[in-house]
Amino acid sequence: MTQAMQRQQAVTIHKNEVFALTAEQLQPQLIYRDCKPKQIIRVVKNELAVHGWQSESIQGAESLSAIAFGKGEEVILDFGEHLVGRLAIRIIPIGSPPDAPLHLQITLGEMPVEMAESFSEYDGWLSSSWLQEERVHLDILPSSLNLDRRYSFRYVKLKVLDTSPKYKVSFAEISCTAETSADRSLQAPLGHTDPELQAIDEVSVKTLEECMQEVFEDGPKRDRRLWLGDLRLQALANYETFSGNDLVKRCLYLFAAYPDERGRITANLFMKPQVIPDDTYLYDYSLFFVSTLHDYYLATDDRNTLEELWPSAYRQIELALERLDERGIVTDDETWWAFIDWHPDLNKQAPAQAILIYNLKCALHLAVLLGNERQDRLRQTIEELTKTTLDHLWDSELGYFVSGDIRQVSWASQIWMVLAGIVEEERGKRLLLRLQQDSTPIPMTTPYMVHHFIEALIQMGERDTAISEIKKYWGQMIKDGADTFWELYNPSDKSFSPYGSHLINSYCHAWSCTPTYLIRKYQL
């Protein structure tokens, strides 16, 4: 390595260390509140309910301390709202002095199904260690059990696995210390005249609140990480609600502080025991660093952050352009990965091409604001890629954009081409409305993709259609029992999971919080 290269490497390392220090200084103070269960419930079979189970109230939770539980007996508690926090239980022996330890199983869940179906039968491909269940032995009673682990739940099941024949136990007190960095006192009220949109907004805000911790987490149950694709949407919702803009800034600096050796930004960061960048790199997520910085600047006018992070953002553009083939189209082969959406058959080439152009336009806007010399080159690249996209990915006979060698037609491709401005408004409007009448394109599978569909509708002037779609999707989720919005929801297959089991799905998930942004930003 030459001396010049060594000096450049030292400069880069120093810059990244400064970014990490900036992020550390922006770590938020968590806000705590004490919450107690509201009801003792049971879960019963109902084939019409999501996952086939629903909850039924038995009695108020204030009666819990008067009930004694022996071997094999259990109780299910409903806290009445989704919580993220730490559980504390005060346990009292009833009867003779305890002559054997209490063996207690504690199961926590976001949905009734997690109270009903045994975790031991889980057979998904994500680790079963994400399932929220603890077994503890207590040698000394009475005892105050404070569980160290943070949980994401509404329901708690306490099951006595064993005591001895001589004594039972009562649960004298149970509480959760809920935690978030979202300051409710700063939340902007909505007061919508449409009660359904008002309810959707409230659940959206609650979802965002639960995911605002020391960083914007993707899901407080699973994976508890800072994912760049989720951050982009959470930040948009945050600007319209809590205005926790320093948390967005912290997350941007964290991503910028931990690139790989080529400057590529990871898809997600592990936060404990120290920050560790994942070795997962997604073409679309790396590019979204550009648009997330762009949106942050528009919301805050924080020019210092823009100037410091602009080189990191522009580097994502440079790296993304390296993937273009001789036609100027994103190369589609086995050496890359883009997320886009969870459908197993979705080809990613065309939507990735559109996402590249979308972020090029964000980069151009930032370059103009900065007076950066790259603006002319960016403008030329956008023009060239827009033309080659229309030349090679638009199929005039099908009337759709196509993706990959299989020339696949998908919702994702059409939506992202509209958002990227590849087609004019009237043509984009026709394209989106046609999707709703055509059952052949590869469909959407996540609230993440549905968000982009709604925003595309709004940008094409289809506000009434957008409102209808919000109600049909997120409104139906509430009717199906959501008190926070779920990671995955397919109205035609409500047990859908890409992980092999709905038990492992996240039922409070960052990328699902955006109706509040859509409703407030566009004054729907």
Q: Can you describe this structure?
A:
This protein has about 525 residues and is α+β, with helices and mostly antiparallel strands. The protein is about 40% helix and about 20% strand. Strands 1, 2, 3, 4, 5, 6, 7, 8 and 9 form a 9-stranded antiparallel sheet that branches. A 3-stranded antiparallel sheet has the order 10-11-12. A hairpin with a 4-residue loop joins strand 13 (about 395) and strand 14. The model has no long low-confidence stretch (mean pLDDT about 95).
Spell the H/E element sequence.
HEEEEEHEEEEHEHHEEHHHHEEHHHHH
* Proportion in β-strands: 15-25%
Contiguous low-pLDDT stretches (5 residues minimum) are none
Radius of gyration over C-alpha positions, nearest whole angstrom: 25 Å
Biggest β-sheet description? 9 strands, antiparallel
* N-to-C span: 58 Å
The helical percent reads: 25-40%
Shape: globular
Tally the helices: what do you get?
A: 14
The strand count comes to 14
- Which secondary-structure class do the elements indicate? alpha+beta
| Mean model confidence by pLDDT | 96
